[in-house]
Specification:
The complex is a heterodimer. Chain A is mainly alpha-helical. Chain A contains 4 helices and 2 strands; from the N terminus they run ααββαα. Chain B is mainly alpha-helical. The chains are: A mainly alpha, B mainly alpha.
Chain lengths: ~110, ~220
Amino acid sequence: MPMWHTVIGIVGLALVTVVTRSFFLLPERELPLPAWVMQGLRYAPLAALAAVIAPEVLLADGALIATWRDARLFAVAAGTAYFAWQRSILGTILAGTGVLLALRLGLGW
Amino acid sequence: MRDMVGPSLGISAWALVTGVAMVKSGLSVPLAILMNLIVYAGSAQLAALPLIATGAPLWVLWATALCVNLRFVIFSAHWRKYFGHLPRGQRVVLGYFAVDLSYVLFLRRFATAGPAPEQAAYFWGGVAWNWWGWQLPALAGILLADRVPTEWGLGFAGVLALLGLAYSTLSGAKSWVAAGVAACAAVAAFSLPLRLNIVVAIAAGVALGMLLDQRWPDIAEEKS
């Protein structure tokens, strides 16, 4: 991506932050929203996260990874196990990154 | 302020990871600093990184960040009950700085909706604490990342952070199904141009979630 393109992208992301964080604070009058819209909004963040995460874990160069010897899989497994156990996001990051580094540096995966 | 100290350790670690991940995904140090200073939304920043790295079109980038940030739209409806009487300029500034932690702590402290005089001090104290607790470690991560070899794959720590966040967002069987469908769709549709697979996956996940809500409205979302 050319540099100016990235800069525009980043400025746009900042605007997204402003608009989402102050969405219902923006109008002068209070906005009523139908309940089903609010319901649907609940699923969007999770769907977006899943959509970004899954290809990062399961694909290599645009194709499904063909080997189980991929450090990412074990890192995700370790992170998942840790979250199931302790419900901690920080622990999930640490456990996953620990396994990732061990496999990358130790076994060269 | 005391309420902030414990959770802000987690925020700072998250910021450090974000800082490293930004640089390791290919952003230059000045761009990473710019992003961190003005976007100021960790999960949206992390979600944006793979899209920037693969040259996704800007609208896909923005739409993804918008979806990740939609929770703030819901929060903002609550903020209005406390700060709706302020002038619009102040409301927008206030909204911009109102991160997840501000919301959680504020609503715990002021459980009954409605303005009260001591709210502003509580809000801005927490916000200032959170801002520094985020920006400094993120900056450290950005500068540190330059010294860590790329082969270590530390950029993946960003994905792991998103993973933890996703797990903590899951509540009940319907959200598992919606997330699973979005994940499968994102992988299956990966060959679509312009990273449209992300858009397809979000649409599929949300549509399915709403469908499940209609069909089985009474399945409780037990907070697991």
